[in-house]
Amino acid sequence: MPSHFSKTLFGAGLGLLWASPAPFVFAADQALGTVVVTGVRGSQQRTVTDSPAPIDVIDSEQLRTIGQNGLKEMLARLLPSFNVPTINGGGTAFLVRGVSMRGLSGDQVLVLINGKRRHNSALINNGARVGNASVPVDLDLIPTASIERIEVLRDGAAAQYGSDAIAGVINIILKRNAEGLSADTTLGQYYDGDGTTGHEAINWGTGLGENGGFFNLSFDGKVQEPYERSAAADGQLYFKQPDGSPDPRENNRQGWGGEYGLGRDRTASVAYNAELPLQDDLKLYSFSTLSYRNSNKDLGHRKPTDITSLAGVPNAPYPNGGQARREIHETDFQIAGGAKGLLAEWGWDLSSTYGKDRAVLDTANNLNISNGPYGQHDFHLGNLIFDQWTNNLDFSRALDIGWSSPLETAFGLEYRWEKYALEAGEENAYNYGSYVPDVGKFAGVHPDPGLFSVNGTTPEDAYDLQRHSEAAYVDLGLNITPNWYVGAAGRYEKYNQGVGDTTSGKLTTRYEFSPGYAVRAAVSNGFRAPSLAQSVFSTTSTVTQFGANGTTSSVRTKQMRPDSPEAIALGARDLEPETSRNYSLGFTAEPIERLRLTADFYLIDIDKRILQTGILKGSAVSQILVENGLSPNLAGQYYTNAADTRTKGVDLVLDYRQSLGQYGEAKWSVAYNRNKTSIRDLADTPAQLARLGSGYVLFDRQQQIDLTESTPKDKWILSTNYKVGDWTTNLQLTRFGEYTEGSNIPANDRTYSAKWITDIDVAYDVTQNLTVALGANNLFDEYPDKIGLKAWAGTYEYGMFSPYGLGGGYYYSRVSLAF
After folding, report:
1. Which has the closest alpha carbon to 394: 288, 470, 335, 474?
2. What percent of the chain has pLDDT over 70?
């Protein structure tokens, strides 16, 4: 009923607009006229409208009024091809969630800031269902207050920018304001009264030097409380002290909160962007971001039977099962500096960019039973650290070759160094203690080592790896005729550490066959080098699996480094780069002034996609792991080049701005994406697995469905921005298409139906400097279908992968100041 009402309301608004007798007088449309810098090089300026490849431009006002509190969620509401699942697995995936663009993983999208490569997160999506094995850039650690606009290139661009640019490029352009102060204060809460979130965004600019330079400083702060949407559980989860009395740390499931929803988040970020012009066309520039985040979230509930060695032990903690908490303390920064100018009519740009992400992993409400039932409950699990240093030298010039237009020429060199380190945790988080219960059901049985939930990193798992690469590229563009543009790019890149070298190329063309009407096309090949995290990461955790009739079981699983003896014994091999081929064909039309329509069809083939295997378990696997020095009762997983895939889809965009005279001005937008990923080929099951029995496969049924059906099949975004007098209203309807949460047991598959989500933001300019606003995300309190497989503790009744959250409606207020 609510979704039907929202669609009817929006349709009525459209009908009134088109029936209006007001003349179609158009105002300037900044988005259509913005000069884009992503995907094009050289002196010729191109806009969204005449770009040879599809580009979306999102400005700071759209980010401010969309009502979301993180950049990932903002992009998911503004881009039809971009999606974010609410829960996509265990481990650290709750924080660096498995974003996808055009149906591909987050680390198959290159992220730039001011055109310079952004470093990836240190947190790998280990155990993730959506975005399996990916290590994306954490967009939420870029302060939104610092962003002037975001350019999203929806096309393969490895030939222009290098590794990762398979699905496209997200280029975040920082603010260049040389004067003024602005602040936005937002406070919101879910309809159920939880998940309270406060967000503060401040930006300040001042002039620098005497030749038009600037220094722009931004601050973002976010405080997010958890929300929980579990149904009734089978029992309370709590500590007890040895004498049986309540432990001061006692908390039930609702008290800890967030296991089936979002966790607690405290994030503070600062950024600056500066430019200092000097004489003779020389400019110095620098920008930086620095973020600190403290977040925690409850992990999966463990049944009493999962903590078997405590059964029957008098006054043991967790008699009704246990629920550990994951805690992450993360520091992230990037700093870039450079100079640009003119040399013999060539524009040049020399830059150096260094980024680092360090995550300290802890856990609370946990227990290493092998050390006894009454021991330590809080542990340091280990540290994850990623460093990246990128150096670029670029040249560009419009060369006169005697043609009717110059040859836009760009070429450059790049050197990149990377390091990934996995540091060990404290001994009690992984050791094999001496405790053996002398009473109870398991008297005389030595408990398994490590924590009952996520394990600490052992000295054997601790590892670090460094890598460097050198690259050279050339990028050319020429208007063959005033209406026909052709571009070509090529890039050669060489890696050490066994990755090898690769050559990428791209051809683009755009032909305007009639004023305002054009076709465009592109063909390219690309690659993504294995991330260092995929080559290094190793840990032990407890994974929940659903069995027949909705039963659940917990499996202690070892994520093995691909080159480790135990992984090799189960068929692992060194990781190879993913390679891709991109094809796109588009049509653009401007039938009347300020009305733009685009349609772009694409096909992306990727070979040797790096994915996580299914959980390899059973006595045969356990025996192999024991023979390689690991503890008993373990299952195993590793990362491997598992599949060749094909993704095909279409992007449709319509933008229209209309003046309604004395009744204000409205901008209408319709955007649509549909894509489908299919598996062209699966890697053969290694002989080491095949000889263990017919039940062993490398990439199981659940993994295949997660890869191909876990994100919405399609997505509509219908929006309007209406301004009249001192009032501004943003109304948006988003239709998230159906998606499937798969299982190795077909009866456990769950397909969730499409849903319409309504967002609204109403702002009033109290004075020239003060604006107040009220808004709602998911105005009509929509939830996914209540068909999920519910775990024993009441979780997952709405499933896990919802692209619009599991919390229902969220309302907020905002106060904006600008001077």
Report:
1. 474
2. 90
Cα separation values, 22 from 14, 27, 728, Å? 14, 14, 19
Instruction: Write out the two tokens for 367.
Output: 């227990």
Is residue 82 within 8 A of residue 675, CB to CB? The reply is: no
Residue by residue, what is the 3-state secondary structure of 132-166? CCCCCCCHHHCCHHHEEEEEEECCCCHHHHCCCCC
Averaged pLDDT for residues 128-143: 90
Task: Report the amino acid identity of residue 316.
Answer: A
- What backbone phi and psi angles, to 5 degrees, belong to 685? -65, 125
| Half-sphere exposure in the Cβ direction for 119 (13 Å, CA) | 33
**Which CATH number covers residue 62?**
2.40.170.20
Question: Whole-angstrom Cα distance, residue 769 to residue 760?
Answer: 22
Rounded Cα distance between 476 and 44, Å, is 12
pLDDT in tens, 341-395: 999 889 999 999 999 999 999 999 888 988 988 889 999 999 999 999 999 999 9
The span from the CA of 556 to the CA of 632, in Å, is: 10
Classify 401 in phi/psi space as left (phi over 0), alpha (psi -120 to 50) or beta: alpha
Closest alpha carbon to 544 in 87, 2, 54: 87
Radius of gyration of the chain (CA): 27
Split into its structural domains, the chain has a count of: 1
Distance separating alpha carbons of residues 401 and 621, to the nearest angstrom = 66
CA distance 531 to 620: 30
Q: Both tokens of residue 259?
A: 């296991």
**pLDDT tens readout for residues 672-727:** 999 999 999 999 999 998 888 877 889 999 999 999 999 999 999 999 999 999 99
CB atoms near residue 768 (< 10 Å): 9
Beta-carbon-side half-sphere exposure of residue 717 (alpha carbons within 13 Å): 25
CA distance 513 to 180: 45
**Pairing state between β 635-659 and 552-560:** parallel
Asked if residue 541 lies in contact with residue 455, where contact means CB atoms within 8 angstroms, the answer is: yes
CB 620 within 8 A of CB 552: no
* Residue 516 tokens, joined: 């305002």
Question: Which three-class secondary structure string do you get for 390-432?
Answer: EEEEEEEEEECCCCCCCEEEEEEEEEEEEEEEEEECCHHHCCC
As a whole number of angstroms, the distance between CA 291 and CA 141 comes to: 6
Give the whole-angstrom CA distance, residue 375 versus residue 247: 13
Decide: residue 482, CB within 10 A, 0-12 exposed, 13-18 middle, 19+ buried: exposed
Domain limits for position 526: 2-818
**pTM given for the model:** 0.91
Q: Give Cα 612 to chain centroid, integer Å.
A: 18
